[in-house]
From TrEMBL:
UniProt entry tagged with the keyword Isomerase: no
Record-given protein name: Sulfate adenylyltransferase subunit 2
Gene Ontology biological process terms in this record: sulfate assimilation
Entry's family note: Belongs to the PAPS reductase family. CysD subfamily.
Pfam families on file: PAPS_reduct
Gene responsible for this protein: cysD
Positions of the Phosphoadenosine phosphosulphate reductase domain: 33-258
Gene3D superfamilies listed in its UniProt record: HUPs
Length: 304
C-alpha cells in the first residue's frame, strides 16, 4: 500500500498543506479569530483552505470585510454570494460608519479611503474582541509584506513593529497574545501570484468577473490606467479610451488600476502571469506609489 510519504506531492500540495496547518494553528491557539474576506482572488483561496481545514463542520470563526464604500460592485456582489453559499457568518464594517462617528476625517471628498481602512479594522477588532485576523496577504506582493512573519504580532494599539517580531523556526508558530494585542496570520504568505492562479485553476474556484478581460473606459496616467467611474471621473483634458483590461488585484476604486489584457480565461491569465516582470501591486496600486515606504507606514498604523 502506498503511504502519504511515498506519494509524489506537488508544489501546490505542499503550499496547501502548510496553509491548512497555519489556519488550524490559529483556530487552536486563539480564542476569537476572524477570517478577512473581501471577495478578491487571495481571499477566495483562503475560503477553500478553510473548507479543507474544517469541513464538514462550520468554520471556527466568522468572515469579515472592511468596506470602504468605494469597492467595485462586481466584487461586493460576489462577496455576498460566496458567503451565502458557504452558510458562514459575514460581518461587514464600513468606513462610512467610522466617518459618521468622526474617527475618520477625509481631507477632501475624493481622497482615497484605502489607507483609512486601518481605523475601521481596529474598531471592529475592539468591538468583537478578535485576537487574530487571518488574511490573504503574500510576501511577493510588496517589500513591506516580505518582511512580515506568518504570525505577525500587533501591539495593543494595533501597530506593527518590523523589528519586534517572533522567530518562526521549523514551521512552529506562536499565535498567543495578551488581552488587547492582536495577531495577523497569513497562511498563504509564501505563495506567489502564479501559485494563486494555479490553485484557482486546480480547485476550479469562481471569481468576480473583473479578474477577466473586458472592455472598460480608462484614462492613461503615466504607466497606470485609471478606470473612469462616478468616483474617478475623467478630468478636463483627459483622453478617455475604451481598452480591453482585467484586474490583477481588486480594492478601492480610487486607487486600483486594471492592466491591458485580453486574457479572458484562467489558462490565458496563467500564461500572462508566468511572463510578467512587475508585481501585481506595482502594476496596479496607485496608493503604493506615493512613496517607497507607503505600505510599510500603513502597516505600522494597523493596516492588514
Amino acid at each position: 500500500m502506498t503511504t502519504l510519504t511515498q506519494q509524489t506531492l506537488t508544489h501546490l500540495d505542499w503550499l496547501e498543506a502548510e496553509a491548512i496547518h497555519i489556519m488550524r494553528e490559529v483556530a487552536g491557539q486563539c480564542s476569537s479569530p476572524v477570517l478577512l474576506f473581501s471577495g478578491g482572488k487571495d481571499s477566495v483561496c483562503m475560503l477553500r483552505i478553510a473548507e479543507k481545514a474544517f469541513r464538514p463542520g462550520r468554520f471556527p470563526f466568522p468572515l469579515m470585510h472592511i468596506d470602504t464604500g468605494h469597492n467595485y460592485p462586481e466584487v461586493i456582489a460576489f462577496r455576498d454570494k460566496r458567503a451565502a453559499e458557504l452558510g458562514e457568518r459575514l460581518i461587514v464594517r464600513s468606513l462610512e460608519d467610522s466617518m459618521a462617528r468622526g474617527s475618520i476625517v477625509l481631507k477632501h471628498p475624493l481622497e482615497s479611503r484605502n489607507k483609512h481602512q486601518s481605523v475601521t479594522l481596529l474598531e471592529a477588532i475592539e468591538e468583537f474582541g478578535f485576537d487574530a485576523c487571518i488574511g490573504g496577504a503574500r510576501r511577493d506582493e510588496e517589500k513591506a509584506r516580505a518582511k512580515e512573519r506568518i504570525m505577525s504580532f500587533r501591539d495593543e494599539f494595533g501597530q506593527w513593529d518590523p523589528k519586534n517580531q517572533r522567530p518562526e523556526l521549523w514551521n512552529l508558530y506562536n499565535a498567543r497574545s495578551h488581552k488587547g494585542e492582536n495577531i495577523r496570520a497569513f497562511p498563504i504568505s509564501n505563495w506567489t501570484e502564479l501559485d494563486v492562479w494555479q490553485y484557482i485553476q486546480r480547485e476550479q474556484l469562481e471569481l468576480p468577473s473583473i479578474y477577466f478581460a473586458h472592455t472598460r473606459p480608462v484614462v492613461r496616467k503615466g504607466e497606470l490606467l485609471m478606470p473612469v467611474t462616478d468616483l474617478t471621473p475623467a478630468k478636463p483634458g483627459d483622453t478617455i479610451e475604451e481598452v480591453m483590461v482585467r484586474f490583477r488585484t481588486v480594492g478601492d476604486v480610487s486607487c486600483t488600476a486594471p492592466v491591458e489584457s485580453d486574457a479572458d480565461t484562467v489558462d490565458k491569465i496563467l500564461a500572462e502571469t508566468a511572463t510578467t516582470t512587475i508585481t501585481e501591486r506595482g502594476a496596479t496600486r496607485m496608493d503604493d506609489q506615493t512613496s517607497e515606504a507607503s505600505m510599510e507606514q500603513r502597516k505600522k498604523e494597523g493596516y492588514f
